[in-house]
Amino acid sequence: MVKNESIARIVMLLCFSTASLLLAAHWHFSENSLKMTMVEPQKPQQPIAKEPNVFEQLTALLKQSQINAGGDSAIATSVTDKSQQLLNEVRLVVDLSDRRVYVYQKGEVIASYPTGIGKKGWETPTGTFQVIHKQHDPIWRHPITGKVFSAGADSPLGDRWIGFLSGKEGEIGFHGTPDETLVGNPVSHGCLRMRNSDVRMLYDQVKIGTIVDVRD
Fold this sequence. Notes:
alpha/beta; L,D-transpeptidase catalytic domain-like; five-stranded mixed β-sheet; four-stranded mixed β-sheet; 38% helix
């Protein structure tokens, strides 16, 4: 009888322990499930804006330009005509190093003349200019003394004047001379001094607006 009661107690204790373990396990899993359901879901990551591709933009612009140019033959023709006109016009190139003026037309030299250039302290300015003044028998005012020289055989400017630059100290340009031995030397106040026969021919070859490119 005593033995049977002991076995019954052991069985009851095992059942109680098993029930406790099952309850504890159930509580643990329930708590974890609750925690999982309470975790705030991650917000979807916003897509990063793509930086504009400069190469793609330039390509698009070039394509658009090609479309515009191809669709307007009148503009293309106008540009071609203008280029041809500029090529046909006379252009002067002054090379100070060899003291000559070259007359270009259609990309070729059609004439060349020796010229005097500015002396030290009065160097002939370099750059690209345009003829702004043409005159027969010019009158000259000395830039330092202010003395005025009238037109005539003894005029320091000869009988032709082709001005291409105007400043506070006066104009710079091509002109003749009564002393042709000075041509080819650095003796002027910045002007380009030529033989009278040469400057007359140059005078007839240019017009107001003719390009004058003066180089070292």
